[in-house]
Amino acid sequence: MEQSKDLIKLLNLMEHPAFFVENGVIRLVNTRAKSLFLEENQNIQPLLYTGQTEYPATPRGVLSLKLKILDRVWDASVTPMESGDVFTLREAAVSPELQAMALVAQHLRSSIAPMLTAAEALLPSGMIQENPEAKHQAAQISRGLHQLLRNIGNMADAAKYQSQEVFPKETLDIDGFIREIMGKTRHFLEAAHIRLAHEGLSAPLYCQVHRELLERGIYNLISNSAKFTPAGGTITASLTRQGTRLYFTVENPASQEAMPNPAQAFSGYLRQPAIGDGRQGIGLGMVLVRAAASAHGGALLLDYTPQGNLRATLTMEIDQSTSRIRSPQLRVDYSGERDHGLIELSDILPPSCY
Fold this sequence. Notes:
The protein is globular, with a radius of gyration of 21 Å. It has 354 residues and is of the alpha+beta class. It starts with a helix and ends in a 10-residue tail after the last helix. The longest helix is centred in the middle third of the chain and has 32 residues, at 132-163. Helix content is 38%, strand content 22%. It contains 10 helices and 12 strands. It has helices at 2-13, 31-34, 54-57, 96-122, 126-129, 132-163, 174-191, 211-227, 285-295, 340-344, and strands at residues 18-22, 25-29, 62-69, 72-80, 85-91, 170-173, 195-199, 206-209, 234-242, 245-252, 300-304, 310-317. The mean pLDDT is 88.
């Protein structure tokens, strides 16, 4: 009883709707959650919009999924406690913070475009290529511009993907698609003295995939892992199937003291500006990863293995539905047809790659 009193006090200190679930039943609800007509002794399962499979079977880690309450979709972070789980909600509609970032990104793109064009024209010139120092400095500039392009792209698209409920998809061999990304990533990581071990499915699997979002989600998982992996370390990635679900897992060795807190992984962009660990970035990468999971009917789990490695698992529903209407899809590349790997991994790659 005393523990329940302390927990409800903690829940009421939270700025967002939050509640405590024990054995699949809501036991405690804070004031903001009560305004959504959530009640004690209510079953959590009917509220799950995504993560219906993952939540009951999840290990003790931080899980990101979606709830549907009063016909509105909410992002939920599920944090395990000793006797249950704390759900913290944030409405999946466009937040003012992400909307402001998208507006800034729109104007920054018009500034960075001529800079990129100029750099791409100058870098191959003989005057630079024949001078080792000039070549190195030009590569530094090129990498910095790719980092800017990545940050601007995340700022521009995080709001769109967070609030979007229906995603246009295409039929792909998802195993072959991920193998292609892993092959390119392995080559790039070798330049950063990090190994990548990848294991895929035993056979092709054709299903409905949002190509751009899944690719960006995978790259962000690898980039985050590489930032906290020491030189000479190995990142392991795997795609496995269990029934109608796919599980893409990325695991990296690092001390828990050096790793960011998984419970804050999805709200890093809301922190106060301060001098800190530069490896954490703006904090929008995990927003895109969470959106990739949601777009494919899945969830995102962050936990630690028994060996102390941080593990991120993006789950997806195997959607093999087909449509009778077929037409060419007009693609607009978010990077201006530049190499996606060089952009998405720019925070961890050396200048020599550019």
